Amino acid sequence: MLNRRVVLTVVPLVVAGMALSACGSSKKSSSGGSSSSGGSTAAGGNKPTFKIAYQGPLSGGNAQLGLNMKFAVELAINEANAAGDLPFKLEYTESDDQGDGKVSPTAARKLIDDKSVIGVVGPAFSGATKAAEPLFADAKLATVSPSATSPTLADGGWASFFRVVADDNAQGPADADYAVKKLGAKNIYVIDDASAYGQPLSKAFGDQAKTDGAQVTSESAPGTTQCQAGQGNAQQYPALATKIKGSGADTVFYAGYYCDFALLAKALKAAGFSGNLFSDDGSLDPKYIEQAGADVAEGTYISCACADISTNSAAQDFITKFKALAKFDSGTYSPEAFDAANTIISVLKKIGPSATREQVIEGLKTVDYKGITKEVKFESNGNIAGTSVYIYQVKGGKITSLGLANT
Amino acid sequence: MCLTHNFWGFFVPGLANGFLYALIALGYTLVYGVLQLINFAHSEVFMSGGFAGLFTLNWLIGKHHPAGMSSVGYVVIGCVAGAVGGGVVAYLLERVAYRPLRRRHAPKLAFLISAIGASYFLLNLAGKEFGRDSRPIAQPFTQTQTDPLFKIFGTGVSLYYAVIAVVAIIMLVMLDRLVNKTRLGQGIRAVAQDADTAGLMGVDINRVIAQTFIVGGLLGGAAGFLYGLGPANVSYTMGFTPGLKAFTAAVLGGIGNIRGAMLGGLLLGIIENLSVACISPSWVDVVSFFILVLVLLVRPTGILGERLGRSA
């Protein structure tokens, strides 16, 4: 905690420094009136600078998911600048919320106070989004999340909220159908990490699995302090594994993130559980295999509203360039973050150099952008139009796509 | 009902957790004995032991494949590495965060703040240097050794639990003998009873205190390795919850009381696992702290009572 506090006291100083250098565009966004003098600013060599920010976990146990997105956003901005046809200059900035709802309002405040920030990719996690989105809505700063999948977020009434992934209302039932109908699960043990992300997902999964005729036991195991800012203790898992083994369950569904899922998977294996393991997009990361051990992770099913882009020809260029920039392979939600950033950029292009924060929100409402994962169009509540859930499986120590859940 | 159904299946992992809590709790209780202070940086001593074991075993096992007797060797090496890592960090902690304050006769609150500061420093240093992800320790056991070793009332006991029990019992017995039978133990007890008088009688107080920290660090570091070897993995924040729980265990058994720390640790570990069995993992802390409050209401100094400077 203390380290965060220290960071937070330093942040205002940094922001103050940024504000000095960016006062030109700050006037623009605070004036607020939609301008008709669009053409004039573009004429001179003096292009305005807009910042597109990324907010998500860049430290803490789930940092890898955050880094997957960070570099994708940076890449989108670099490419847009390099194309040379922009009537403005784009800059990248970031704010680390550690994926934690307690930290994210402060992280959001940092971006809101920087008046040159015109749009935000993120927040990455649902809990963090829930806590920060009221601030973004007040500041009329658009956020496009590549990965916040909690269904309740769309009910918040926040005009600033958009996301390029399907919510868990799509993922949970699709997973349940897959587990019961495709994998033949009869007795399913559903565990969530007691987070804003895990709990609705486990409920959506459990309800559908019951409808499909499977026996469902649900339980909350709080995420551990060593994985995320949870309250749980890693030593709960061996006992929980014994309980699951004793219940005679043939399938375990975990609604949470890879770090805790890996610990649970290890404990299940140690307890002699041999049924199917199934988890959600929070676990779709090669680190899961690394942390659980390849033999434990083998065969695990993982679902995601995110597409597998390795077979998508339009995305090959992204994959190579991402690796060159990030020095590691693109991972879960990298392509979605790339699409989210490009969606904001396409809106900005349309508005031109006089763009304000409000105009970006209005622009996003009607945007139709063809991204590398899907066609980005938003419903009125900020949800992505059209849904599709994909199933993956760990095979030979690698996560491989099995295609759409409902095929 | 939850207790009659597969009671031993929950009791055995609970006992293993309890042994780990006991090893960590002793670090709190020993330091409390000589300084009447809670060493809040002890959870980072535990974490250091985890990392020392992780690096040693991953380096060794990277080259060789464990088999048969070499597994025993790896476990012993891991425990020693963890203990040494914990001991070194605990000693440095005493030198840097405690001794300068003691020399200046600082008030007790200053020690507390100094320990919390050291704790955050170590935590973030480890996060920065070793990465923020949780990392598994290379398994010293072969595939067949993960199968149950023997059965108690129908419940298979895995080699991992057996290793924890054996290592912990050896260390607990050695500690008991150390405190009760050796010259260092006499020194620890003398300082705990009355530091000033012990000093007048020729006991080198600083030396005894430093050695007390090292002994606590050895136990905590070995526990860190054993903890990381299991399903929990090693990470820079791994010390927080077990540290808090072990501190609770020390209070439950009677702070400053060595056998109390052992008893408190074992009880807490078992209670936690049974509350997972009977209720849910999200109620574990509620149950264990409820029991702690109940015990403290009846016996404010813990089950075996606060006990400084007497052979247990």
Unreliable stretches covering 5 or more consecutive residues of chain A: 4-9, 11-44
Averaging pLDDT over every residue of chain B, what do you get? 87
**Strand runs of chain A, count:** 14
What is the helix/strand order of chain A? HHHEHEHEHEEHEHEHEHEHHEHHHEEEE
Oligomeric state of the chains?
heterodimer
* End-to-end CA span of chain B: 38 Å
CATH architecture of chain B: Orthogonal Bundle
If strands are numbered along the chain, what order do they take across the biggest sheet of chain B?
1-2
> Nearest-angstrom radius of gyration of chain A?
21 Å
Q: DSSP strand (E) fraction of chain B?
A: under 5%
Largest sheet of chain A: 7 strands, mixed
Classified by CATH, the class of chain B is Mainly Alpha
**Structural classification of chain A:** alpha/beta
In spatial order, strands of the major sheet of chain A run 7-6-8-9-10-13-14
Distance between the termini of chain A: 46 Å
**Count of helix runs of chain A:** 15
Strand content of chain A: 15-25%
Structural class of chain B: mainly alpha
Helix content of chain B: over 70%
The number of helical elements of chain B comes to 11
